[in-house]
Every structure is written in structure tokens, then in C-alpha cells.
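quick one, 314 residues, struct below
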Amino acid sequence: MTAFIAKRLLTLFATLAVVSMLAFMIPYLSGDPVRNILRARSPDPVLDPAAIAALTEQLGLDRPIYQQYWEWLALALRGDFGLSFTARTPVDEMFLSGLGVSLSLSLGAMLVALLIGLPMGIVAATRPTGVIDNVTTFITQTLVALPEYWVGPLLVLVFTIHLGWLPSAGWDDWSSMILPTLVLAMRPTAYFAQVARAAMFEVLRSPHMVAARARGLSAWQAIARHGLKNAMLPIMTLFSLWLTGLLGGSVIVEVIFAVPGMGWLLFESVLNNDVPLLQGALVCIVALTVGINTLSDIVTALLNPAIKMPGKGA
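---
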């Protein structure tokens, strides 16, 4: 187990190191960073050479590139990515605000997906190839196929414009959370249902479930007492994957519904060429994703000894 954890942590730090280097190089990918900053601050197309030289010295861009990277990395490790070019606000404050919103949105979507997807999958597994199973398959395939950028405006058209029941944008109260949460929950719901069906289908035919039925337990009693616990491992793994995916991958939904989360910040940083915000968003999103996935791998290994060591089920 120690070797397994060490390998996962080594992968974590290696990934973060590579991402930090890529984030540091972002200003250089779009030309001279000093000229880009001055153009963002002033509409004057003619830049003053004295202003260019002063800003170059102020930002330390006249020093060797490796020295710039180490200084930037030291600040980044303390959460200091500088000020946003457009908002003139510390990036870490903007990120923390956006993280709270995205976390609420993602957890809400995951809760909806679990409450709908798990019962669908479990019921379908008890009646394989039956009507319920076929309907479940049709629903899950439809949810996977429908794109968020089409479903989102459609829900706004129906529930906001025609019915006037829900707001179309913002993040002010519980009513503004409903539409983006439902749209973001579509794909996780489908995958939870599919994984729950497959896992429960195998569990229901395992020897210990047959023995439970032989002791006089009904099908649903056997599922409640023994089946759910044994079917939860792949669902837990899927939960961590989807949670991290939604945290950093909800850009389309957040833009459609004007939700001020991390996806919205990432969109705004690219749209406005806001380099510090883009660097901070990239590093923080990847760090969250890799960190949560690493923790999930370790917890899964603790729960399932068969995958503790490479070559023995891992």
C-alpha cells in the first residue's frame, strides 16, 4: 500500500509541475507580454518605449527565464497569481468566489444524478431485457446524446420566457440554481444509471446474494442489506471522476446561465486575454482535479485490497 500511495503522489506532483510550467509560459504564447499588458490598459495603438522598458523592469521580465519561473512559482504556491488585468482584483479572491459557486453547482448536479440515476439503474438490473430496462437504456442514451448548449436555451425558452417560473441567469437564490443544475446533471445521471445497472446486475448473480435469497430474504431486502454495499465501489469511482470533471468542465453551462463560477472565470480570462486570471484558473482547476482523483484512488485501494499493488488488479 505504501508503494501504491507513493506512486500516486509522485504522479500528482509531476502533473502539477508540468502544468505550472505550461501556465507560466502562457504570456509568451501570445507575443510580448509587456506590450499585451500595455495594450490592455490603454487604447493608444502607439506604445511609449519608456513605458515598455519601465514595465519590463517592474515585472522582472529582464531577468533570465528560469529565474522568472521560480519567482512566479514561489508566489503561486502561496496562492498569489497577481491582479486580474480587467477586474484589478486579486486572482485568488476571484478564484475562491468562483470555486464556491462551481462547487455548489457541481454538488447539486451530482446529488440530482445520484437520486435519479441510481434507482433507475438498480430497478433496471432487477428486470434485465424487460420494459423498464429498455426504457432506462433509451433515457440514458438520450441524456448522453443531448448537448448542454441546446438543452440550456430550450429550458430557458420554456420555463423562463413562456412560463415565467424560473430566472434565466444569475446565482442569486435557490430558483436560479434549478436550470443550470438540471442541465449539468444530464450526463452524470445517464452514466450513474448505466454503471449502477451493470454493477447491480453482477452483484445479484453473485453467490452471497443467492445465499441471501435462500435464507428467505426478498429481492429488495437482499439488495438493501448486501447488494448496495457491494455495488458502490464503481459508483464511488465514477462520482469522483464526474465531480472533478464538472468543477472544471462546466464552462458551457455557466456561460449560458451567467453563473459566476470557475468556468465563467475561465471563459472571461480567455475572452479578455486576462493572463493572471487564466494562469490561476488553469493551475487551480488542474490541482483540484488531480488532487481529488488521487484521493479517490487511495480511498478505493483501501476499500478494495485487490487493487493495492500494480499487477494485482490495478
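The two ends are 12 Å apart (CA to CA).
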